[in-house]
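Troubleshooting log. The previous structure file for this entry was overwritten by mistake, so regenerating from the original sequence record. Sequence copied from the archived sheet and checked twice against the printout by T.R.
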Amino acid sequence: MASISFYANILNGSPTVINHSAGSGLGFYGLTFGASVPVGSQQNTTYITNSNGTSQGSQLNNTAMSTIGNESTAGTVSINGSTAIDSNKLPNYLCPLNVRFTHDQAVRVQNCKLRIFDRNNINNAASGVTTYVYEARHPSSNQTVTNLNLRGRNANSWVEFNPTLSPTDMLFTNSPGISGTNTNSSDTDVNLGYITTDGVSHASTRHDWYVALSSEPETIGSKTQYGLYFSVEYL
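Regenerated output below.
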């Protein structure tokens, strides 16, 4: 049976599953839980919370977009308030969110897509907030090594989901494998942290993606018309 689950990477702790079917998810705040994020700024902290953002759960790793980057220049990210680094140095385990696909048989996954929407219709943008998304392909805990070459996007820039535009899909890596450690044969440096080099032909009972998220309010007030949608095909 196929299933998609969402895991939160807890600050200084072990990942935990998010009970999204009961309305639980991620919330983005200022310096402490419940504190507002100034308009036009990125969040300082990320927590597990309820659908209204009022219940304080575990604090997660926080990834704040510093510069968005482009096709030739990497974007930058501040991790838990640290000095910003190039996004291609962001280790998987420091992303706040791990999207996990499981199946009782080993399968390949393709057309892996994410979008940010208003929690009502996946064709509607989130209301009043711009979101920046980056997929980390960095199984090594060492920030000095580079990304894996098997990736959903070539650029190391953030992808912007603008509230004034209809959301389009952000492509994620096909068949990333357990803990996102599958790559292709062009990666030969074991310091990158890969385990297999099957590329898109890799089959597994589990595939993991690691997602950095940065949230920028466009107006004052809580933003609750705000959700994340993820889909895959498996074969």
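The chain is about 0% helix and 35% strand. Archived copy saved in two places this time.
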